[in-house]
C-alpha cells in the first residue's frame, strides 16, 4: 500500500465543484492570470447546466435584482449581483458565441436552445486559460494548515491529498442526488465551525394526499393560468395538475416559500371578478347553466371538476347571493393544503445553506477561515424560477475569482 503524501500544487486555488459557480470562478480567475484546479466528482462538468431549463438552460433573467432571492439576509446577494450584473452575463456569453433569446418574463435562453453550448464555453475557456479540470475527483475533506489548506480526494479509486493556499467551495446544493448532489459544502462549513441554515427542497412540486387526491388526479394534465399566493408572496403563472398534486411554474415558485402545514391559495381567474362576470352574462343569457358558463372559461374537464363544489346544474339567473359568494371563493381563493413536496429528487434548488453571516458579502470569503470561499447554491441564497439561480452562480463565481 502506498502512503497518501500531501502533494504541493502550483495552483493559486482549488475549486471544489465543476458546476455553474465553479466553472465561472475558474474562467474569471484565468482572466486575471491565476491558475486554478477544478475538482468535480462526476465524470463530466456542468451536469446541472446540461439538464437545466429542459436541456435549454435558462442562463439568466433580464430583470434579476436581489429581490428575487430568498435568504435569511435578503440584502446579502446585492454586492455580488452588482459586481457581476445581468448585462455582464449577457455580454460574457455573447462574446463566446451564445446569443440569448427571451422566452417569457425576462428568461434568457441560448438561441440554439442547447444547454451544451453553455458548458462548452467554460470547457473551452478553461482549456485556453490553462485552468485544470479533474473529473471523477470526489473531495472527501478540506483541512486548514499553517499556510493554507489540504484537500483530500478520491480519483479513479485512488486517494490523494493536495495542498493549496485557497479553497473555493462550489459544490452545489442537495437537489437531484442521483446527479452527484452532495452536502459537502454545508458539511465542510460546519466542520470549520460555521453556521448553516436549515435546508429545504425548493422550486419543487407539491403533493396532495388523502380525500382530495382523487380530485387532483382526475385533472391530471390540465394547465391553468393562475395567481398563486400565501401571506408572504404571490406569483402569476401556469399551474399544472398531476395525479399526485400540483406542479407548473407558479407552484414551483410558491413552493420555495411554503412551510409544512401551511395552505396556499389559487386565483383561477387573476385580474377578473367571477361574480361581476356572471351578473353581466345573466343579463344576456340568464338560462345558461353554470356548468356551460364555466366550460367557456376553463376546459370542460376543469369545469366538470369545479362542479363538485358549486351548483353547476343551476342556470345563471337562479344563483343566489350566497351561491355567488361561494363561487367567488372557489374561483378566486381556492384553498390548497399540500401534504408535502416531491423532495430533493424533484427539486430544482434548495433554500438554506451556509449562513450568510459567516461570509463577507463583498468577497464571499469565510469570516472565520481566511482563504476559504463559498459560492453558488451551497450558500443560503435561493433564486426564483426563471434564470435567477444561474445569475447567482455566475455572480458568486466571478466575485470569488476577484479575491483569490
Ligand atoms: C432540473 C433542474 C433544472 C434547472 N434549471 C435551471 C434554469 O433553467 N435556470 C437556472 O437559473 N437554474 C436552474 N436550475 C438550478 C441550477 O442548476 C443551480 O442553481 C446551479 O446549478 C447551482 O450552481 P452551483 O455551481 O452552485 O452547483 P452545481 O451546478 O450543482 O455544481 C456543483 C458541482 O459540485 C460537484 N460536487 C459536489 N460535491 C462534490 C465533492 N465532494 N467533490 C467534487 N465535486 C463535488 C457536483 O457534482 C456538481 O457538479 C435547475 C436545477 C435543476 C435540478
User: How does the major sheet shape up?
Assistant: 7 strands, antiparallel
Terminal-residue CA separation: 36 Å
What is the CATH homology-level superfamily of the largest domain? FAD/NAD(P)-binding domain
Strand content: 15-25%
* Heterogens: flavin-adenine dinucleotide
The total count of strands amounts to 23
> What name does the CATH topology of the largest domain carry?
FAD/NAD(P)-binding domain
Indicate the percent of residues in helices: 25-40%
pLDDT averaged over residues: 96
Give the spatial strand order of the biggest sheet: 19-18-15-16-17-14-20
Q: Number of helical segments?
A: 13
**Shape summary:** elongated
CATH architecture of the largest domain: 3-Layer(bba) Sandwich
Count of domains: 2
Q: From the helix content, strand content and strand pairing, which structural class follows?
A: alpha+beta
* CATH classification class of the largest domain: Alpha Beta
Question: What's the Cα radius of gyration?
Answer: 25 Å
The unreliable regions are none
Cofactor: FAD
InterPro entries: BaiN-like, BaiN-like_dom_sf, FAD/NAD-bd_sf, RsdA/BaiN/AoA(So)-like_dom, RsdA/BaiN/AoA(So)_Rossmann
Domain RsdA/BaiN/AoA(So)-like insert: 201-349
Keywords: FAD, Flavoprotein
Model description:
InterPro entries: BaiN-like (IPR004792), BaiN-like_dom_sf (IPR023166), FAD/NAD-bd_sf (IPR036188), RsdA/BaiN/AoA(So)-like_dom (IPR055178), RsdA/BaiN/AoA(So)_Rossmann (IPR057661). Keywords: FAD, Flavoprotein. Residues 12-402 form the RsdA/BaiN/AoA(So)-like Rossmann fold-like domain. Pfam families: HI0933_like (PF03486), HI0933_like_1st (PF22780). This is NAD(P)/FAD-dependent oxidoreductase. The protein is an alpha+beta fold and 404 residues long. It has 2 domains: 6-199 and 351-402, FAD/NAD(P)-binding domain (3-Layer(bba) Sandwich); 205-342, Translation factors (Elongation Factor Tu (Ef-tu), domain 3), CATH 2.40.30.10. It has a 7-stranded antiparallel β-sheet with strand order 19-18-15-16-17-14-20. The longest helix is centred in the C-terminal third of the chain and has 15 residues, at 388-402. The chain has 13 helices and 23 strands. The protein is elongated, with a radius of gyration of 25 Å. The two termini are 36 Å apart. Bound molecules: flavin-adenine dinucleotide. Residues 16-22, 39-42, 47-48, 51-53, 57-58, 138-139, 170-172, 175-176, 180, 182, 184, 348-349, 376-377, 387-390, 393 line the site of flavin-adenine dinucleotide (FAD).
